[in-house]
Write a structure and sequence with these properties.
15 helices, Phosphorylase Kinase, domain 1, Transferase(Phosphotransferase), domain 1, alpha+beta
């Protein structure tokens, strides 16, 4: 595309430490279609434009400002001032954290040209104040590192490029949430003395990002002044609030910004960087490179590794274990009130763990669901559920509404198609019934809205069908996809965009699943959620056979993780396995402190796994074989 837009091949000149184009080499775009206004700022209006088949953003500088305050006598003069920014070397480290300028387009000889640049997704202020609850520690570090790296790139040019006006609206994010510094043209087209003029800015409180020396002398702006603004930006990332310093400029900055600083935990590693950046004296502040290097070091820590990116699954612990740089250290952390096996364990948004739906050592508790508070090591129980051996799921945007799918109706002792939900301290039938009754199906929840149900034992045979409950519409539909085999004792987990289904295939001679014979084979499938929903093509993929039978499939962990189980000869094993897509096999990544058959497991915050329930022998569940000890596996460096 670039070659089609260029109009000159004149000799380059050396500027800004790179091979620079001359001013008549700037890409003069043609056939640009101007779209709607997407934003208005202090120095211009942002528009959506189309060039060729690509969409871009374009900025038209405020003509009144430029003509009255800083006259641009011709298009040639305009281009001359744009050369250093258009010609930033795109292969240099850090340039990907600076918005890319494509060219200029002049649709009216009497109007200011349009500065055409890459189209970004959202700005940082929008992310911090609209999506503040979705941002993790890892996101905070990534965004801060992107900004610091981009700023270091600008400062490393010869001569250096100062931004002069860093604030949250000038940091844009692309669709993958990479942060980039924008509005570089203001540096070249607006004199620094106008930055502080309130009459030309529509951004409330932009002065709150500026260092104290600028209020004494606007001409004293240096790279250290940009670093001060970087520190304020990082503080805003941490607090999710626009900076609110008091107006008394005689106070030290830590006092002026005390109300914001007090919102951040004292042991936050990013807060230490903030303090170093907002020093009152320029000479005491780090360079942008030093800030970038410090943030890069944080990205190598365990605290960073166990956190997810925006929109991702919180528990990526299995991926870390595959690197062989980390291991799980297991400790006994609690005692479950009643022994159980084959249960489902899930963690809600408030940190509580629900476990139930399995076999218990006490008949009277077989329909109960236990609730565990890991923080306080406190157990409670919900009132008896109307079904036994149902599968638990958490639905809703915040995954806080508990439902139980399928199982055996306790009053009639037969497999049921009902769905019960826990609302207002009692069980209700708020959702319609499934298409068929299912005992021990595989269940997973996608985006809090879609409950995926596969396999399980029907009233006379193992099931191979998949159906979906749309929680928002409160309706079921059967997917066109089917499992390669009917499965019993099934388990399910949504891993990224795939539904993982594991279960046993009955011997062909078994009469409808009513005998007490053991299963011959355990299989595991990966199914694209989009294909299940009918939104995209896809097929069922058979993964390598699980190394053990009766293992716990850890929910929400990607790649899939299995814990415990036994061999075909009923030899119990304490292994922890993660599926390695590179070798298409199960990698052994650790062992638990004791053997467990049919345990339940659930990921916790901070890279930990809670392991509970199960039996010590693969034969029967009894008070003698039930394991009541609860173990927690903590991620640590090898």
């Amino acid at each position: 595309m670039a070659s089609s837009m260029a109009n000159s091949t004149s000799n380059p000149t050396e500027t800004y430490g790179i091979t620079a184009l001359r001013m008549d080499d700037i890409l003069h775009l043609k056939r640009v279609k101007i779209g709607k206004v997407i934003g208005m700022g202090a120095f211009g209006t942002m528009l959506r434009v189309t060039h060729g088949e690509e969409e871009y953003a374009a900025k038209r500088m405020n003509e009144s400002l430029l003509v009255e305050k800083f006259t641009l006598r011709s298009l040639k003069d305009f281009c001359r001032k744009c050369v250093p920014i258009f010609n930033l070397k795109r292969t240099s480290s850090g340039v990907d954290n600076v918005v890319k300028y494509i060219g200029i387009y002049q649709d009216d000889p009497n109007a200011m040209p349009l500065l055409v640049m890459e189209l970004m997704h959202i700005d940082l202020r929008y992310l911090l104040h609209v999506h503040k609850d979705t941002i993790t520690f890892r996101d905070e570090v990534n965004i801060a590192h992107d900004i610091a790296t981009g700023l270091d790139f600008l400062h490393s040019q010869v001569p250096e490029i100062l931004h002069r006006n860093l604030h949250a609206n000038n940091i844009l994010l692309d669709s993958s949430f990479r942060a980039k510094i924008a509005d570089l043209m203001n540096v070249k087209l607006i004199p620094p003395e106008y930055i502080l003029k309130k009459e030309i800015t529509s951004i409330p409180g932009h002065e709150e990002y500026l260092p104290p020396e600028i209020f004494r002398d606007v001409r004293s702006y240096t790279a250290s002044s940009d670093v001060f603004s970087l520190g304020v930006l990082i503080l805003e990332i941490l607090t999710r609030k626009a900076p609110r310093p008091v107006r008394n400029l005689k106070q030290p900055e830590v006092q002026r910004r005390k109300s914001d600083l007090s919102l951040v935990a004292e042991d936050n590693v990013l807060l230490r960087i903030v303090y170093s950046c907002i020093k009152d004296h320029e000479s005491e502040r780090p360079s942008a490179k030093e800030v970038s290097d410090n943030l890069a070091e944080i990205k190598e820590t365990l605290q960073y590794a166990v956190c997810a990116s925006v929109g991702g699954v919180q528990a990526n612990i299995s991926e870390l274990l595959l690197t062989k740089r980390y291991k799980l250290k297991w400790e006994k952390t609690s005692t479950i009130p009643v022994g159980m096996s084959g249960a489902t364990a899930l963690k809600s948004s408030d940190g509580k763990v629900y476990i139930g739906g399995g076999w218990t050592t006490e008949a009277a508790t077989s329909t109960s669901i236990s609730v565990y508070d890991p923080t306080n090591d406190y157990w409670t129980s919900l009132p008896l559920c109307p079904v036994q051996y149902g599968c638990l799921a958490l639905v809703g945007k915040d995954r806080s509404s508990l439902i139980v799918v399928g199982g055996i109706l306790a009053t009639e002792w037969k497999t049921t198609d009902l769905v019960f939900s826990w609302e207002a301290k009692h069980w209700t039938e708020d959702y319609p019934a499934m298409s068929v009754p299912r005992l021990n199906p595989a269940v997973g929840v996608y985006a809090g809205r879609y409950v995926l149900v596969a396999g399980g034992l029907g009233r006379d045979h193992s099931l191979d069908t998949i159906e979906v409950l749309d929680v928002e519409k409160s309706e079921w539909r059967v997917s066109d996809l089917k499992l390669p085999h009917g499965l019993q004792e099934a388990k399910g987990s949504v891993c990224g965009d795939n539904f993982i289904v594991m279960g046993q295939v009955r011997d062909a001679t078994d009469n409808g699943g009513v005998s007490d014979q053991y299963f011959d084979e355990e299989v595991i499938f990966s199914i694209p959620v989009g294909a299940i929903l009918g939104e995209s093509p896809g097929t069922v993929t058979t993964l390598a056979p699980p190394p053990h039978r009766y293992s716990a499939l850890v929910p929400g962990v990607n790649p899939p993780m299995l814990i415990g189980g036994s061999t075909n000869n009923d030899n119990e094993l304490p292994g922890v396995f993660v599926y390695d897509s590179q070798t298409t096999s199960w990698a052994h990544v650790g062992t638990t402190t004791c053997t467990r058959v049919q345990p339940a497991a659930v990921p916790l915050h901070g890279g930990a796994i809670l392991l509970l329930g199960g039996v010590s022998k693969a034969t029967t569940l009894s008070k003698e074989t039930a394991i009541r000890e609860v173990e927690t596996g903590y991620l640590e460096n090898m």
